[in-house]
Amino acid sequence: MTIFGKKVHIIFSLFLWALVWEVVGHTGWFDIFPPLTEIFKAGLEIVPTDKFHNAMSITLHAYFVGMGLAVLIGIPLGSLMGYSKVVDQLVGTWVNIFVSAPLTAIVPVLMVLFGIGQTTVIASVFMFAIWVIVLDTRAGVKSVNPSLPEMAFSFGANGWTVFTRIYLLAALPEVLAGIRMGLIRAVKGVVIGQLLVAIMGIGELFELYSRNFLFEEFWALLLMVFAFAFATAEAVGYVERRVEFYASAR
Amino acid sequence: MNQVAEKVSNSADDTIVSVDGIAKRYEGGVQALKGVNLDIPAGQLTTFLGPSGCGKTTLLKIIAGLLDPTEGEVRIRGQKVTGPGPDRSFVFQDFALMPWATVIRNVAFGLELSGASKEERYEKATKYIAEVGLKGFEDAYPHELSGGMRQRVGLARALAVNADIILMDEPFASVDEQTRRKFQDDLLDLLAIEKKTVIFVTHSIEEAVYVSDQIVLLSRRPGKVANIFTTDLDRSVSPDEVRRQKNYLDSVDEIWAILREYLQEDESAAARKVRG
Known about the structure:
Number of strands of chain B: 10
Shape of chain B: globular
Distance between the termini of chain A: 33 Å
Strand order of the largest sheet of chain B: 6-7-8-3-9-10
Number of helices of chain A: 11
Helix content of chain B: 40-55%
Largest sheet of chain B: 6 strands, mixed
Radius of gyration of chain A: 22 Å
Number of helices of chain B: 10
Strand order of the largest sheet of chain A: 1-2
Radius of gyration of chain B: 19 Å
Oligomer: heterodimer
Number of strands of chain A: 2
Structural class of chain A: mainly alpha
Largest interface: A-B, 22 and 25 residues
Order of helices and strands of chain B: HEEEHEEEHHHHEHEHEEHH
Structural class of chain B: alpha/beta
């Protein structure tokens, strides 16, 4: 970014908007925008409470279990779709429906299936995260240079070895991109699951704060969720950049 | 002259690969090969040469066991080929290197698949990396190497598994001319030491004549054996002198005359189609 001919760090824009927010907050024109400093203060207050710890642990549990299942099922499913035309045609339509469907509408159906509780939240995380992982893995496996599996076969590899040693590794950049986007969608999944179905975890806190007009606390929690989603996605992004060199060289 | 004497003495038991009545029809009806019969002598470099689309690569991949023929069979020392085997290794036109692995891991990959210990395969890989002239690049990644160097990695990988037969599919097609000539000479030097049977696919007449002991000329699709040439070049002289030898120049002319005929037939067939 360049302002008046000077190069400005991207952080500057963040700082600028934070300043605008602070000023607007102090005018008191909008109830829902308290000053940013007040929000940080509220954040510091809620973080040490038991209520927050319980909410966090139950939320992270649902998040990581749902996400783990999405990875464990999504990568093999996506690989199979990229590998076999039959599987691709069999499930491709469904995957594409789910990836573009308004999943929020499906969450109540999950509740009917799994009841009100943690299982439904996990299922919601899973449903939000898996499809993009499936599609990206599929794209990665499909883009593997056909010479590579042929090479492995020529040296006596069997189908399974070729799959694990060639296809999965060659598709790694796409698989990681899928996981990174899955992590972000999973944050949506966990919050929507907790808000819509089982009023629990941070969903319960959101509900509590917004219903009682505790906007400082509400924003503090929201910013923490943003920060969490950003940090996990960046962690995967870091690994992704380390394997990027071969994405273009395949 | 010695070479000529050797050739004459080529009897049936010198044959390492026999191609017997091979036909290949792809799904969708393209007939790539039809009635290919061929004996390939051991310890020599045989080239498949022909117009593009004549099925040279298809034939090579059938010998490799990577493709199944529609009809006929390939035998190696009398054994029918049913798939890839440790007696053959393949060098790919586009190198087929794993971009995520270093040179040494790429070269050792064939050995790794055959279950060799890490120590053994790294020792062998190091040896062949040096043989193809890449000493010092063991820990480089393929994307850090030039095209010619990448193909040297591909060649080292094929040599490292110690197969008797090396199948090379247009190995120099994607490297530049200077690199290609240097590589051809290095390959010949290397083969003089390694004593392999090499089957080499190319569409370059000069390359075929320069590197081969015998050249198998394939006809247009559906490909079959049109002609077999043996080249008798005196290789004791410098590469430039080899390219000035009468044998070399005559072979190039002779093969070009045949290929030109194919070309003219193609053109008149196309012209008939347009008129008809």
